[in-house]
Design a protein that fits this description.
This protein is α/β, with parallel strands linked by helices. 16% of the residues lie in helices and 26% in strands.
Length: 204
């Protein structure tokens, strides 16, 4: 069962089809939208989660890009007894010593290097790099083409923008936002937004 029926759901539908390990039952979405996504039916809203679990659907994948929403829906599904398998595209490169948490998503061309960790419900998007000993925290998102160098720590629900680069050993606090194309050379406090080259904190 996919929770979500937007653009990110399309990516995950194709990922699970490429893996061929689980049958896609359908999508759930609380938003108005189409009756199906890439041939997978939208069955209704998230109020059906408990019904579907009672009918024997065992696995769920949260196909939502927003970090806080992905975390909330993942917790809801877990509380109902769903397993949240990690979604790792066959075209991703994952070190045998890396650790991938429940519900985490590692998309095509992403790299997870030695002793790196992608925590539960985190999203390592297309072509993103998580180098050795780095951590992408719970429900965080490293957007397409971003690079997190060795030893980087990204806190829960933080967002690393498209093409952003993070210097080795830097820490990004929980709920922080790193802008598109930013070059981060110093630690970023929790909840802060940084942009530019070199990245500096901004107020919006």
């Amino acid at each position: 069962m996919l929770i979500g029926a937007g653009g990110h759901a399309k990516v995950l539908i194709e990922l699970w089809r490429a893996l061929g390990t689980l049958e896609l039952v359908g999508c759930l979405s609380d938003a108005e939208g189409p009756a199906g996504v890439l041939g997978v039916p939208v069955l209704g809203g998230t109020e059906l989660l408990e019904v579907l679990r009672n009918e024997g659907v065992a696995h769920a994948c949260v196909a939502v890009g927003d970090n806080g929403t992905r975390e909330r829906l993942g917790a809801q599904a877990t509380a109902l007894g769903f397993a949240l398998p990690a979604a790792i595209h066959p075209a991703a490169l994952v070190s045998p010593s890396a650790r991938i948490g429940a519900g985490a998503q590692v998309l095509a061309r992403a790299l997870v290097a030695a002793d790196a960790r992608v925590e539960g419900l985190a999203l390592l998007n297309h072509g993103a790099i998580l180098d050795h000993d780095a951590v992408l925290g719970a429900a965080a998102h490293a957007a397409p083409g971003s690079s997190l160098a060795g030893g980087v720590r990204v806190g829960a629900r933080a967002l690393i923008g498209v093409g952003a680069q993070v210097k080795p050993g830097v820490s990004i606090g929980a709920d922080a936002v790193v802008g598109v194309g930013a070059a981060v050379i110093a630690d970023v406090p929790p909840g802060a937004t940084v942009t530019g080259v070199p990245a500096q904190e901004r107020s919006f």
